[in-house]
Design a protein that fits this description.
six-stranded mixed β-sheet, 7 helices, elongated, 6 strands, about 210 residues, alpha/beta
Length: about 210
């Protein structure tokens, strides 16, 4: 088991925690991590791009000149792709870019990222993360106490006060243990867990 130092919101060490090797100590599978990132980005794409082909552009029903005898190349329509105002060759059409990953692949990607964070000392465990009121300044102080600029904060359960306090900090994103994004874990660098959220993750994926 990986042993990680537990800190409080003041950045002081208050103990240690043993993290399960089944979740935080697996061999990193870069292929699954890449697939998970591409999956999330692809699923966010609208796919609404559209351009007209020659059959969709209005006009062009009459031949611009007769077939032979003009000295020009033969032309059938002024809406052919080589004409100004003509249709587009292989025009993009609305499509769905999304694809699915099965549960084992998703779990493998998440475990790989969390294990890599442990290996790279980019995982911070807090004994708790509680705020009495919504205050961005207080949350920024906690990040400063931990020596962290960019962070992906994973809470054990929904906490509107903490979420709202972090909302206006562009380098911080919060989520819950049941909705972790591999892409965001990579994007925000340091992953911050509470002891409770670490336990929930182990229960779900171990």
């Amino acid at each position: 088991m990986a042993t990680v130092t537990v800190k409080n919101m003041d950045g002081k060490e208050v103990g240690t925690i043993d993290l399960s090797d089944a979740v935080f100590g697996v061999e990193v599978n870069e292929h699954l991590v890449h697939m998970a990132v591409v999956n999330q980005l692809a699923n966010k794409r609208q796919g609404t791009q559209k351009a007209k082909t020659r059959s969709e552009v209005s006009g062009g029903g009459r031949k611009p000149w007769r077939q032979k005898g003009t000295g020009h190349a033969r032309q059938g329509s002024t809406r052919a792709p080589q004409w100004t105002g003509g249709g587009m060759v292989f025009a993009p059409v609305p499509r769905d870019y999304s694809f699915k990953m099965n549960k084992k692949e998703k779990a493998g990607a998440l475990k790989s990222v969390l294990s890599d964070k442990v290996n790279e000392n980019q995982l911070v465990v807090l004994d708790e993360l509680k705020l009495d009121e919504i205050k961005t300044k207080r949350f920024a102080e906690i990040m400063s106490n931990l020596g962290v600029d960019k962070a992906y904060v994973i809470l054990s359960e929904k906490d509107d006060v903490v979420t709202a306090s972090a909302k206006n900090i562009p380098t911080v994103k919060t989520t819950q243990a049941g909705a972790i994004s591999v892409y965001d874990a990579l994007k925000y660098g340091t992953v911050i867990l509470t002891k409770d959220s670490a336990k929930k993750i182990e229960e779900a994926y171990a």
